[in-house]
Specification:
Oligomer: single chain
Order of helices and strands: EEEEEEEEEEE
Strand content: over 45%
Shape: globular
Number of helices: 0
């Protein structure tokens, strides 16, 4: 079973940047598709970004394209989410996710989440 631990959340002003990181253990990281989801207050969890174990396969939600960047380091077993030009509507609990499917949209394990709050 995969274990995921997120870090890097916090409070930031609108227009600012944050970097989230997720450390994975328990399975061969280089064969895991990794992603980020978020759950805004009072809303359902939604897909943010994903990176397949197949090189070059990335996917982003339309709402974050051009502002967020997902990357992975197979040597460190980590996946990062760099968030720039943050908006108040980006406020949410952000969850790291892992899956064995090659698609960056399908996952079956989630971390505990980390809070991101963007003030206006």
């Amino acid at each position: 079973q995969v274990q995921l631990v997120e870090s890097g959340g916090g409070l930031v002003q609108a227009g600012g940047s944050l970097r989230l990181s997720c450390a994975a253990s328990g399975r061969t990281f280089s064969r895991l598709t990794m992603g980020w989801f978020r759950q805004p207050p009072g809303k359902e969890r939604e897909f943010v970004a994903g990176i397949s174990w197949i090189p070059g396969r990335l996917d982003y939600a339309d709402s974050v394209k051009g502002r967020f960047t997902i990357s992975r380091d197979n040597a460190k077993n980590t996946v990062d989410l760099r968030m720039n030009s943050l908006k108040p509507e980006d406020t949410a609990v952000y969850y790291c996710a892992a899956g064995s499917d090659s698609s960056p949209r399908y996952y079956d394990v989630w971390g505990q989440g980390t809070q991101v709050t963007v003030s206006s």
